[in-house]
Structure formats: C-alpha cells, structure tokens
Amino acid sequence: MTRNPLMQSAELAARARQVLPSGCTRSQVWFAPHPPYMVKGEGAWITDVDGNRYLDLANKLGVLIHGHVHPDVVRVVQEQVALGACFAAPTPHEVALAELLQSRGPSFERIRFINTGSEAVDLAFKAARAFTGRSRIVKLEGVYHGSNDFAEVSNYSTPENWGNEPASVATVPATPPGVLDSVLVTAANDLAMAERLLSQHATEIAAVIVDPVPPRAGMRPLERDFIEGLRALTRRLGILLIFDEVIAFRFGFSGAQGRFGGAPDLTVLGKIIGGGYPVGAVAGRADVMETTAASVASSGTFTANPVTMRVGSGEHAAVDASSLHLTRCNGRAAARCTHPLFRRRSPADTGQWYRVGLFSLLSSSRRH
Ligand SMILES: Cc1ncc(COP(=O)(O)O)c(C=O)c1O
To answer: What pairs with residue 266 in β-bridges?
Structure first.
C-alpha cells in the first residue's frame, strides 16, 4: 500500500476541524480535502510537515518580493527582537519607512501606518469622512477592499441582484441596512454611470475608492479614460479619490498610479510594504492627513511596531525601479511558460494554492 504523502497534513486537518470553524482560520488558504501544512520556507521553496517541497508561486499573496528567509530580513528581525519587539512609543524606524514611502509616490505627502490593508481602508474612509463632513462612500461593483463592513458591499453581486444601476448588495449575511445605505456602487469603466451617481449624491459622498488593477475583477487595469474622468469628476464635486494599492503598489516604483496615472488624494497600502510582516498604511495629501490626524484616531496595539518598520525599510531600500522592472519581466516570462500549471484556465480545476500562485505571478506581468 502506498503511503499518503500528505499524511501529517491530513492529521493536522482532522485536529484543526475540532478547533477552527471549517478547519481553517483563513478561508482563503483552505481547499478540499485539506491544504498541506507548511513548516519552512527558503527562497522560492516551501516545505510541508510531511517533507514535501513546493515551488511557492503563492509567495504569501505576493508579499514576499524577495522570497522566504532572506538573510537580511532574518538578521534585522533578530537584531530588533533582541532590542525590543514593540514599545508604547514611536521609534526611529517608522520615520525611516515613512520617508522611504514618501520618496516613492508624489501623492504620498503624509503617511499613517496601521496593521492590515483592511484597517487601512477603514482609516482612509474615516479620514475622507472627517475631511469632507460627508458620510457616503462609492465603490466599484465586484471589487475587493478587505474585510471591513463598508468595504464588503457588492463584492459578489450578480446580474440577478444588481438592478438597472448596481444596487448595494450585502456580501455578509445581515449586514446592517445603514452600511448598505452608506455605500453606493457603480460599474468599472462606466464613466457615464459614475457621473450620474456622483452628481445625484454629491453633497453626501466623502470618497470614491477604486483599485486601479482590481484582482477579483480579472486583474485588468481600469481604463485610463475612466480613471482620468473619475479624477476630474471627484475634484469638481469636492469628493476624495482613494486608490486601494494594497496589491497594485507592486506594479511599479510609484505603484499603479505611477504606471497608469490617476493622482489620488489618498492611497491605501499594505502587503509588500512590511516585507512579510503585518502592515497597512494610508498615504496621501498633507491637508487631508494633517486635518484629520487629531479627529480620526489611528491606534492599534502593534501599529508601526519596529520589527515591521525595519523589515519594511530594508525591503524598500532593496526594491528600486530597475529591480521592479526585472520582476515584471520575470512575471511575463512565467506567463508565457508552457508548463501545464501555467496553462490551466479555470480556477475551479486547480487547487487554491496553485490558483493563488498563478495569480501572484500573473499579477506582476499583465500590461495595460
Ligand atoms: C486590494 C486589497 N485591498 C485590501 C486588502 C485587505 O488587506 P489585508 O488582508 O491586509 O487586510 C486586500 C487583501 O488582499 C486587497 O487585495
């Protein structure tokens, strides 16, 4: 009888089902019958509890731009943990990372850190509301912006429930009606629809949030005319334009906005800016960020912890414009690769692991 090569993972999954709902604390990384449980990473490779090695195309959802266990990252983490992993006080490292980020985007005049991309989206919404004195947010249908209530509207709307103009559809059961009322939805690349919606509710809308390269809407960059039209429209109506670049920031040295344009008022960042450690940030116009800094508390026990800040600074110092260009070239080469893994089309016929991995590679390779 052949030995199950995932035996220890199967045993862990059985234990997990007794303590974690559906067997996994992150639904994103679970797939049937169970995922392999990882114990080690090294460069582009990861090893599971049964000793199987995998080429890690998931790359921690694109976070680990330098791969696993980069010696500089390990050194910095060890140094900082020996000095203190977190303080109830600022450290020089948050200033250094903010300076580095500021140097990467002309619209990043001020930066506030937080712990995740979802929290950063929330913080950007609050800042926009406080600055404009208006409470409604506009988002694009089918676009993911993390897991806060106001972001989780119309993530999976369908022709059956979106109506003539997209309705605000709950993603999570029993979403409070007030949340659905606060979030208006419009369709990507339909400037006429956005203009109708924004003009009709202009005095109530604080911000429009878009992901310039929305992954769940097919990783197709928004059309330039749409972004430019939205920019002009929001400016005219006194509405803030927020870019969610939690993923898209890796599209270029100045993120997607540097590559595809847009000049947002606020940008939400996360993932790669912490070099593999939990992070989120809002970067944007000095007047918006300064005026709202006092009224919009940005707390978080682990916010701007020195480990994340130091690793993030190291990653940024190492990622210059030419290395990002190289990453894109590698991504394009991978997308042309003839290996069957790269030729699979339907997410349904692949494991989630591969799906995420493929997504990760392709997302740095697509062109406008
Ligand atoms: C575009 C986008 N925005 C926001 C988020 C939320 O970030 P986090 O998972 O760090 O909360 C994600 C996460 O994948 C994302 O892809």
So the answer is: 242, 284
User: Would you say residue 247 has pLDDT above 70?
Assistant: yes
Q: Contact at 8 Å (CB) between 213 and 248?
A: yes
Number of domains in the chain: 1
Sequence-distant (6+) residues with CB within 8 A of 147 are 118
- How many whole angstroms from 144 Cα to the centroid of ligand 1? 7
Q: What is the pLDDT of residues 104-160, one digit of tens each?
A: 999 999 999 999 999 999 999 999 999 999 999 999 999 999 999 999 999 987 777
The band of 62, judged by pLDDT with boundaries at 50, 70 and 90, is: confident
Q: Does 364 fall in a domain?
A: no
Q: Which of 50, 122, 211, 271 is catalytic?
A: 271
Which of 296, 347, 334, 343 minimizes the C-alpha distance to 114? 296
Q: Could you tell me if residue 148 is inside a domain?
A: yes
Please confirm, yes or no, whether 244 is among the known catalytic residues. Answer: yes
Range of the domain at 233: 82-318
